[in-house]
Amino acid sequence: MSSVTASPSRRVRELLALCFSSVEAGGNRELESLVAELVNCLNSLYENVVLNASDELENDVIEVLDEILKVLSSPQVDQDVIDALSFHLPKVTSKFVDLSGRCLHLVEEIVDRFVEACNPRDMLSILCEALDAARCSLSPSSCSTPLLHGLSKVFISIQRRHYEQLKVAVPIVLNVLKDISLETDVQVEGLFDKALGIASSIRDVSSKLNNEEEAKVRCLLGLYVIQITAILSVSIRDKAASCIPLVIQLEPFLTYCGLTHLGLITGNDTEKLMSTVAGDDDDDFGTSFPDINLGASLLLIWAKISHEVAEAANAASGSDVAELQSNPVKRWQAYGMLKYILSSVDLLWEFKRHAIEFLLDITEGVTSSQCNDEQIDCSHYTPGIYATLQAVTLVIMYAPDADLRKKTFEALKRVLSDIPAPHRFDVLRALVTNSRSPSMTAILLGLVKDSMSESSLQATDCATTDTHVIELVELVLRPPEGGPPLLPDQSDAVLGALNLYRFVLLFESRECEAGKERSKVGSEILSKKNLEKAYKEWLLPLRTLVSCSIAENLKEDHGQESSLGDVCLLNPIEFVLYRCIELVEERLKSH
């Protein structure tokens, strides 16, 4: 027997000839054995190429692929042989496409020949299986190219039950595209061309259908386009502007699917698409589109980045902003969708900057009175808003420049003020409770103070508000894990808590002195029980801790910069702490 390395093309020719002769002799079992031997021959050639790359081996591969293509293109070829080869050759030959452009061209022609000669439904499952295997190859991007090209042709060739077939194939395609996007040296244009070819094929299929199946295929296309928008955006390693021409090509698909930027940013369009495609009996199908909300929100941001993108979708961004400014419910929905961009660790900062600017745009001129309509229930949207604000706090902490941090802080304040008063304090309390940064905790406690000073919050159940404030202050001054707060590490948070407590003591005292009506139970903060608790459990232990810390630092060498820095951090805490102690002692005397 000839060795693979001696003359691989001759051995392949011999095996293919034996395949034909076995069919003529009626030996199906022998055919299977010969096809398996052919596959082993090709795999051995591939392993040899990987270990000993050379021009000579590349020429051998080209000869082998050319020999396979000649046999498949022969008019005398037996259908049983083609069917037997189709189960294996698309997968094994796709391994060679990374060698050269010539190899890629030959493999594409081989796959195309199978698509033309074999049953479309069989080829759909064969190519999907090959794509799944390509994900584990050394070069998923290259190996998948001819397979995706063939799959786009198979879609159009399917004669019936189009939606069921596409529903199986599309998730596999998306997994492959996502894997490719994670490659360090991914070519964004190449990735996009593969994704666009599949989208065009799905649209062609949809245009040939009628009634319910056409609507489902169209919805599936919409989900696919939204998902590949997320994949494309995450794969960008440089400037987003370089991919504007690519995104422009996606916009006509959105129009074809009846999607709008406003519907996408509110989440209404994605919910409609998913409910149509997934249905009540297929809850797991949604996992095939893990980045659907990210892609939906990114499509609007792309339109904000480029007017050309907006024009391609016949969308007017100004009208979308005006609609969101005037409609609290849609605005709250938009807040919830933007969390997917703001919390993503894979996107360029450029996308987050535009997302923050969009938040500022839709909250421009919005007042708290606009969102306090008792007939509008915000509770359904509060979890999404909270998650977005958590992401906003991360942007404030980690943004690469001061301008973005400033804009993000302004967006944080505006979104908080847009939450109806009954829910605003709950969101603030949750943000403080889950904050892991002392500086951010101090910022949030400052916003709690600002919210308390607004008339909209003063009109709510004051006893409930007082209880929340007590919880927040205690959370910092008497941490749930036990012991006093760590100083100076927690200095910002401690100072913020003391400032909030001092403000509340003064605020409550003025309210009482002015004779303003409070809730039936009166001021919880000024009750004797809570005053004594604060005095004995928070303030006095903290006074001891601060005094000892300052004294200990002053004993150290005066030249040590760290000691002086610690004292500078502790001095403001000491000042506010003593003022709080004085206020509590005065109120206790009145009891």
TrEMBL record:
InterPro entries (alphabetical): ARM-type_fold, Glomulin/ALF4, YAP-bd/ALF4/Glomulin
Single GO molecular function: ubiquitin-protein transferase inhibitor activity
One matching Pfam family: Kinetochor_Ybp2
Coiled-coil stretches noted in the UniProt entry, renumbered to this chain: none
A GO cellular component entry from the record: cytoplasm
Name the record gives this protein: Aberrant root formation protein 4
